[in-house]
Amino acid sequence: MMNHFNLSKAFYPLLLLFFLLSNIPLSISEIKNTWILDDYRSMILFENFGFGKHGHISIWVTNVSWMSRVENVKFNPSSMGFFIADVPSFRRIWNESLHDKTYCVLSRKHAEIILRFDHLEQDSTYRGSTDIDEPDEYNLVFGNCQPEFKVSMHVHTETYNLREGEKDFLSAGKAPLPKLYFLLFLIYAAFFIVWVIACKNQRPRVEKIHLIMGALLICKCLKMICASEDAIYVQKTGTPHGWDVAFYVFGFFKGIMLFTVIILIGTGWSILKPYLQEREKQVLKVVIPLQVLENIVYVIINETGPATRDWLTWNQLFLLIDIACCCVVFFPIIWSIRSLKEASKRDGKPAKNLEKLTLFKQFYIVVIVYLYFTRIVVSAIGAFLNYWFVWLVPVLEQGASLVFYGFIFYNFQPTETNPYLVIDDEEEENAAAQMEENNDDDDPFEL
Predict the structure, then answer these.
(1) Percentages of the chain per state (helix, strand, coil), in multiples of 5
(2) Which of 116, 145, 171, 353 could form a disulfide with 81 if both were Cys (CB 3.0 to 4.6 A apart)?
(3) 80-106: per-residue pLDDT in tens?
(4) Residue 67 belongs to what H/E stretch?
(5) pLDDT per residue over 109-163, tens digit each?
(6) Strands, E, within 87-125: which ranges?
(7) Could you give the domains of the chain?
């Protein structure tokens, strides 16, 4: 038991790291159609992709047009074009461009040009492609050395590796993902079956919260099978064929239900008490709309890609909302801990309340560790992984989720002899003394 755990001291340093990690771009690995409208950025990132020995990039650019932002400036088409650069080179290019306003990326040796707009006219079409000879992680970028001109265009991109003569549209480090997600689907399906059996065997003790927990498992299970099918279709065809929509839908319900379950368990609803207080209802009224907004932003981020002008802003908004949800869910757990301490002074059952208090303190710590690990630690590890091992990120995240689910479902299962709530009569005096000692200490959960 952590008697002096301080939420504020542990939380705020990690918040800083969380925001720093928001600048890491996500990998986009499917066939993309992107519209650029009146954009004057000097560099626009379109793709980030891990290539093996036989990689290929193809670009089709149509409906190209431009407009001057400054009068009496001559347009030079060759000042615009697409190039690729490995990740270290792109970082160097980006840093140099920040310190030199006359910097032209298309003239730098680190940029491998795929196509320039040398002979383009209004509404012209151009195609460029290149084979990747050096396996590495590359960025596909549009460079504009005349930012006084706004450019509009439709860009179709295909990035893939060749494996045994077949196109593989998944990034080199994501090949294991279809099998991984399908394995997780089987695990959660078995998890759900075990939960149904447990609830059936303890039917008199099944509460509403246990039914909601079962529904959470169903949503998680369906999300995993959709993720598997999504990855399979992207790998083979470059597009998810609608599985991404199903993935977003079930992910939406899973996210809402997970935070709802954490809050309801944290309040002790239908386990310690059959009702919610007004302040606990207010927490739900805050978290559920935040989860709805978070899922909408998540869809926007994944469907627009990094070429969108406000893509980084959407990422930062997503992280901000996610942090807000993580903060809010702590309050009901802390309230339950304080209520149990107060109840110990009134009802004459110190041992029973001590065990419940232990359970909720452990639940509080586990929730913090789970949220920190999946939101911060996993992202930090992913930032330093070689692109061949990016599959480890979902392995770590889903592994932590599975352990977290196991903890919740085991400790709050519908059973009479919960291991955390079994009380030996001989422990009553010791429990009373320990409860008295805890009450005399400064309350680390005081808000």
Answers:
(1) 55, 15, 25
(2) 116
(3) 999 999 999 999 888 888 887 778 888
(4) strand 55-68
(5) 788 999 888 776 666 778 899 999 899 999 999 999 988 899 999 999 999 999 8
(6) 112-116
(7) 31-168 (2.60.120), 176-423 (1.20.1070)
